[in-house]
Specification:
The structure is a homodimer of 240-residue chains. Chain A has 240 residues and is α+β, with helices and mostly antiparallel strands. Chain A has 2 domains: 83 residues, 3-Layer(aba) Sandwich (Glutaredoxin), CATH 3.40.30; 120 residues, Glutathione S-transferase Yfyf (Class Pi), Chain A, domain 2 (Up-down Bundle), CATH 1.20.1050. Chain A contains 9 helices and 4 strands; from the N terminus they run βαβαββααααααα. A 4-stranded mixed beta sheet of chain A has the order 2-1-3-4, with helices on one face. In chain A, strand 3 and strand 4 form a beta hairpin. Chains A and B meet through strand 4, helix 3, helix 4 and helix 5 of A and strand 4, helix 3, helix 4 and helix 5 of B. Chains A, B: GO terms for molecular function: glutathione transferase activity. Chains A, B: Keywords: Transferase. Chains A, B: This is Glutathione S-transferase. Chains A, B: InterPro entries: Glutathione-S-Trfase_C-like, Glutathione-S-Trfase_C_sf, Glutathione_S-Trfase_N, GST_C, GST_superfamily, Thioredoxin-like_sf.
Amino acid sequence: MSVYELWYWPGIPGRGEFVRLALEAGRIPYRDVVMAAPDADSGMSAMLDDMEREDPAPPFAPPYLVADGMRIAQVANILAFLGDRHGLAPADPAGRYWAAQLQLTIADMVAEAHDVHHPVSVALRYEDQMPEAARRAEAFRAERMPKFLDYFERVLAVRGDWLGGATWSYADLSLFQLAEGLAFAFPQRFAAVIADRPHVAALRARVAALPELQAYLASPRRQAFSDGIFRHYPELDGVD
Amino acid sequence: MSVYELWYWPGIPGRGEFVRLALEAGRIPYRDVVMAAPDADSGMSAMLDDMEREDPAPPFAPPYLVADGMRIAQVANILAFLGDRHGLAPADPAGRYWAAQLQLTIADMVAEAHDVHHPVSVALRYEDQMPEAARRAEAFRAERMPKFLDYFERVLAVRGDWLGGATWSYADLSLFQLAEGLAFAFPQRFAAVIADRPHVAALRARVAALPELQAYLASPRRQAFSDGIFRHYPELDGVD
């Protein structure tokens, strides 16, 4: 088995980070192809070429994982593969579909968190869609953030320490990353919402303390949030 | 094995239709629980109660399928289950992850098509977010619709008749439904875009002609588009 290759945009944790956390916590060797390039431009250029080459199963967008001769794209799909192959999710069918279901709900919230600062078009800058972003941010803070986090709180209140089994699964790692992103992007609102969701707060702390992740989280490979999916614009945050 | 139960909002095809098409084309017996209720209100009320009951694996949102003692939510996850269990996708790992990847990309476009008319908040009516919708519609028509359909065109140009194998998979059914929805919501723009994507147009016609689907498509159970995910507001359509 050759070492897996992860392909993702350089310079942001973005959606690639959900995959990185699973690879790191699972102690699965991988090559972070674009990050390993001599510079960001050449890495990105190599990725764009790689995406365009003739292939019966091309990715629509990064991240994608090259593994066992396959090119696997879409975060939830990559994680399902890693879950199946490396035991990063329950192995029984019910547990397996449950982890996938959780991951897709996390992915939905990630997409909504992104669209707060890009409610009109990904081809425009935030500065060109600020009035729309202000309205969407208000709805995200007031309705969507509590609704999604209430759901995870409800699950954890029944299940205990982990979302999907007796130990962590890729979904727990992803919920941690989602919480980190929300705390970065909406520090005031997230602090208010998480104060009433102790199980989600505890899950976040539990993942942050996983022995398997300490070396990675302390390394320069763990990238800070900046201008990717989760962005901090003070005018989009608020206590309510 | 008990008959599967499908739970979804009454009155719209919505995301439930991607599941219905797979169940119908796969000739899998199921009970459409809410549609079978005496009236829409009591059906919806029963579903809301069902979603709130104590369960270690609750759905975040409909549709969900009750199958073999599991409650499986998220369209791509339900379809992966049906694919695994009923051969509605290639059985080898590469084909299986590929079908899931396609489905997730279809789901991304479905979500974007929805957000055209609800770019600010799902809790507001379209009439309360029309200026934002006009801008998002322009970007969706000009950038996103060609980009997504180019991707499926590229895949079909290499693969031939079907997206994922020697015969149809659930992803083909879903791409058909997506094309139907786009043709309903954006008739002018979709006609212009599809004219240059002959493989997607042919796939749509091929699924529409599947013998397995004829009885269903001609039945009253096949609901018309109205005010669900795909909505036709003439002011959001245009030739470019």
